[in-house]
Amino acid sequence: MSYTSLHCHSDYSNIRMLDSINQLPLLFERARELKLKGLAITDHETLSGHIKAIQYIKQQREKYKNKYEAEENQEKKKAIKQELDYWNNFKLILGNEIYLTRNDLRLDNYIKGKDKYYHFILLAKDAEGHKQLRELSSRAWSHSFRQFIERVPTFYRDIEEIIGANPGHVIGSTACLGSQFAHLIREFLDSGYSKEVTKRIDNFVKWCQKQFGKENFFIELQSSESDDQNSYNKCALAYAKSRGIKVIITTDAHYLRKEDRPIHKSYLNSSEGDRETDAFYSGTYLQDADQIKEYMNNISSEDIDIMLENTNYINSQIEEYDLKHKEIVPKIKLEFKEVCIDDYDIIRHIVKKCNLEYVSKFMNSQSEQDKCYINNIFYGLSKKIDVNDWEKYLIQIEKEVAEVYEITQKIGNDLSSYFNTMAKVVDIMWNEGDSLVGISRGSAGGFVSNYLLGITQMDPIKYGIENMYWRFIHRDRPELPKIA
Questions:
Q1: 4-48+90-317 CATH
Q2: DSSP secondary structure letter of residue 453
Q3: Contacts of 373 (CB under 8 A, 6+ apart)
Q4: What is the C-alpha to C-alpha distance for residues 387 and 342, in angstroms, rounded to an integer?
Q5: What is the separation of C-alpha 242 from the centre of its chain, rounded to a whole number of angstroms?
Q6: What's the pLDDT at 444?
Q7: Which residues in the chain land under pLDDT 70?
Q8: Is 182 buried (19+), middle (13-18) or exposed (0-12) by CB count in 10 A?
Q9: Cβ within 8 Å of residue 306, ≥6 positions away
């Protein structure tokens, strides 16, 4: 039977340590060879591969669509249609493998032998779910500290505040032997089936079901030749059956094929020291159903079929969504600098006299970002430039804000907010005292309005800099500026 592989690593998992040799295009090609219904990207605390994964699936669909439309030979057309249908029906699932820890874990309060970095799998069901993954990942990296490797803990509180507060958008599963659930199962076996440990298992499961919703929480088994894994599988399945919890099987893929195992082992051991790479990683590659059953020979074929079908149930719950969107222009709390009335009257007179159309558009804009932008340019003009030169400067400002206005119309966002934000960022950098800020930065130095806003500190008109303003931004390149 065909199933959905719900726990797969790519080379993006190597961001903190050597981990996987799967390259994304090759991972999907192998999934196609095995005729998998879908595949989840669950790298170790990183969402970095998601855009590339989405792009690959889009490219496959577009490629075979174009081939199908262009092909005239009916036999070839039929074969192409099979490929097109496969990729159109293939479900890409975006997820994350997090490290679940107690609240407020830090390096200075870490308790050796007690604190663990428990693995846990999150799968986004929809765009809102992916937003939750991003928020959780940002929090995890904000908690990070160095302990042999970079630790990126997700607190229980983070799950409660982000997923628990708005459940139904993320699926959770118990992950590998490094999970809290697996540790509790092992403790249960070692304790001789302790009721006290059973209660702790129940409490953890109830917590998961509360945060994700009962229908969105799954116990995860994995196929492996490891005795520990097989022992866990049998006990975890029995527990799940006793509590009516759905179970899935994953392969925790770190390499593509069984024959790639020596390469993966060498890769992991190419860093400092030796790592356990045998039993634990024995089955961590993409497998078909027959290979899974061969490894999991202590579990009935009927149970395995049910668990594999549960992966397809999860597949059916995933909405397709895209992470592509218009560029987001950063916005800050606006600070209007005070321009004295007499100075403003002079500026208004020049704007009217010289028919400065775009300056006028900003002055009369409905956008507060636009109004703040032009106001603070006027403030810089009044403080930095001799009043006798204002007309010359305002004529140059007209050319610059014309580009800002026209780009705004094309991108559908107030580009003025970019300059408001950058002015604040540069101001903070100067005032903090520990940052080195150059007086001018690339083509941004050709914009006199940047100088008046305090983004740059060199007047391009006064010093005759041969750096034409249109090199910085131009309406024919409707994109955000790059002030390096």
A1: 3.20.20.140
A2: H
A3: 362, 404, 416, 417, 419, 420, 453
A4: 11
A5: 37
A6: 82
A7: 272-278, 433-441, 464-467, 484
A8: buried
A9: 247
The phi, psi pair for 31, rounded to 5°, reads -60, -40
Whole-number pLDDT of residue 306: 98
Q: How far, in Å, CA of 277 to CA of 17, rounded?
A: 14
pLDDT given at position 326: 77
**pLDDT tens digit sequence for 46-73:** 999 999 999 999 999 999 999 999 999 9
For residues 21-57, one letter each, b for 16 or more C-beta atoms within 10 angstroms of the residue's C-beta and e for the rest, the string is: bbebeebbebbeebebbbbbbbbbbbbebbeebbebb
pLDDT of residue 277: 61
Query: pTM above 0.85?
Result: no
> Among 186, 189, 222, 185, which residue's Cα sits nearest to residue 304?
222
Domain ranges of the chain: 4-48+90-317, 341-471
Tell me the C-alpha to C-alpha distance, in Å, between residue 118 and each of 45, 46, 82, 151, 400.
12, 16, 41, 12, 54
How far is the C-alpha of 368 from the C-alpha of 172, rounded, in Å? 43
Calpha distance 353→341 (Å, rounded): 18
Three-class SS of residue 319? Answer: coil
pLDDT for 466 equals 58
Q: Give the whole-angstrom CA distance, residue 247 versus residue 304.
A: 9
- pLDDT at residue 153, as a whole number: 98
Closest CA to 120 of 192, 55, 29, 45: 45
Q: DSSP letter string over 396-449?
A: HHHHHHHHHHHHHHHHTS-THHHHHHHHHHHHHHHHHSSS---S--GGGGG-HH
In the three-class reduction of DSSP (H, G, I as helix; E, B as strand; rest coil), residue 388 is classed as helix
By C-alpha distance, which of 95, 100, 98, 16 is closest to 49? 95
For residue 148, give the 3-state DSSP assignment: coil
Q: What angle do CA 412, 418, 413 make, to 5 degrees?
A: 10
* Single-letter residue type at 272: E
Phi-psi region of 442 (alpha: psi -120 to 50; beta: other; left: phi over 0): left
What is the DSSP code string of 27-43?
A: HHHHHHHTT-SEEEE--
pLDDT on residue 275: 54
